[in-house]
């Protein structure tokens, strides 16, 4: 994606959700946030504080109880089952993170740590994509099955294909996130070189619009605190 010609508002307007996805979950909404002028790098004091606060909040909220019984996570398990995924094996991303809280959340890099902290703190699936490696518009679709998905196995790069009917985010090149929010591809993942990104916050019925906005607002505040001068734009898709 050409940095010099990138128009955040126009790019966000080009993003779509296929009606076949909304037929599965008419209550689905995606808050897309673009950020330009990010300062990438390793985990730092700010990202550590956000993660520590999220861990404390999660321990207070869930204790030793089963995180999957949280209404929003239970809804996401239902959504996964609706397109044939088994949530016991491929968990919604927020559930997978919350299950790691007792042992400590991963410390990856400052941008990933920030969005993971928001995901855990607000119990919402949340992912980030590097816009410099994104090609064309973002689309949430039910896969044909021939889309490429670049990942790793045993430390080596491999190309997988989603199952037909699987819900995936994709661009012009291939699938960027499989099983709605389960796993992101290696091609568009955030790195220490990422300066422009798109973040996806996934909401179902138990998370109302006010709560979705609160999660997005905290993410934007954290990005502005970590990257002074960042330029941010956003758009909500779905349930229109």
TrEMBL record:
Coiled-coil parts of chain: none
InterPro entries from the UniProt entry: B3/B4_tRNA-bd (IPR005146), Phe-tRNA_synthase-like_B3/B4 (IPR020825)
Segments forming domain B3/B4 tRNA-binding: 74-228
Organism this protein belongs to: Streptomyces violaceusniger
Pfam families per UniProt: B3_4 (PF03483)
Descriptive protein name: B3/B4 tRNA-binding domain-containing protein
Gene Ontology molecular function: phenylalanine-tRNA ligase activity; RNA binding
Gene3D superfamilies: Phenylalanyl-trna Synthetase, Chain B, domain 3
